Amino acid sequence: RSSYSCCYFVLPCCFFDFHGKYSRRQSKKTQYREYLDFVAQVGFVCGFHVEEDCLRIPSTKRVSLIGKNRTYPPAESALIDKQITQFINNRRTCGAGITCDRRVGFNHKDHCEGVCEEAGSELPEDETETGGTTWMPGFQPREKVEQIRNCASLPREFVDEVVLNVANLLLNATPQKSCSNMQDGNMNSWNQGESLSLKEVAEHLNKETLKRLKSEYGGLQTLLKNNHQVFEVLNGRVHIRDWRKEKPSSKTKPEVKRRLSAEAFKTRLCWFFIHHPDGCSLPSESCPYAHGTEELR
């Protein structure tokens, strides 16, 4: 509807209509094929010769629909725009939508007459006019720059403070646990702390912190999972990660490559070496993180 000269390309994927999920009406077709036919139907109602192509991409949803040429002259633009509006409103009000099953390649004018008859009501003037008026009152397009809300864009200082508070909460929840470290034949105790539910952890955070986290997708759980060096979240419970229990990679590498990757691996400081009261549970040569800035690569 943006202009008579526009063309379009669409790669249908998720099954949605104009105002919600697409409802199936034909059990003889696969859901994907029926949805492709619906998207093609939209193109025909909008006055396009719709072409179908199969893309060479590694995906099961690779059928694209292209509209390059119109089925009507520019002088009929106002009439077609009314038919488009009726089509949209009919799908919005009837829920089940258009029940006719037209095949790709049918006569465009016959189809549009059927749509207009099924709409069955006059439309408000502001929705049938073209030339700069609002097509869909109340429609709010998404921002040009999509906001990242997976806690990745939160200030580093804020994230570090939450991580430290939650870690201290787990460490002080119960008397220290003694975890045996059998490396080099020595018995060393290392406090892994207690596990708490996400709800219990949230109850100990201040309101300002929780309010800030609620604006992010997944909130507190996402932030803790993002900091997987420190935490492990399993079945809704938060644990401090013990790197001695982490399974080594199943992929075997030649000794030279293994040595080179280990040297290049330490790009971040070890949180436990800096903040944990017992330090890191692993010796420097076994820890994937740097024990001090001199180990950073």
TrEMBL record:
GO annotation, biological process: tRNA methylation
EC number from the UniProt entry: 2.1.1.211
Reaction(s) catalysed by this chain's protein: uridine(44) in tRNA(Ser) + S-adenosyl-L-methionine = 2'-O-methyluridine(44) in tRNA(Ser) + S-adenosyl-L-homocysteine + H(+)
Primary location class: cytoplasm
Compartments in which it is found: Cytoplasm
GO CC entries: cytoplasm
Zinc finger (C3H1-type): 264-294
S-adenosyl-L-methionine as UniProt keyword: yes
Stored InterPro entries: tRNA_uracil_MeTrfase, Znf_CCCH
Key words of the record: Cytoplasm, Metal-binding, Methyltransferase, S-adenosyl-L-methionine, Transferase, tRNA processing, Zinc, Zinc-finger
Top class in the EC scheme: transferase
Domain of life where this protein originates: Eukaryota
UniProt keyword annotation of Aminoacyl-tRNA synthetase present: no
PANTHER family: TRNA (URACIL-O(2)-)-METHYLTRANSFERASE-RELATED
Purpose of the protein: Adenosyl-L-methionine (AdoMet)-dependent tRNA (uracil-O(2)-)-methyltransferase.
Protein name (record): tRNA (uracil-O(2)-)-methyltransferase
Species of the source: Tachuris rubrigastra
Gene transcribed to yield this protein: Trmt44
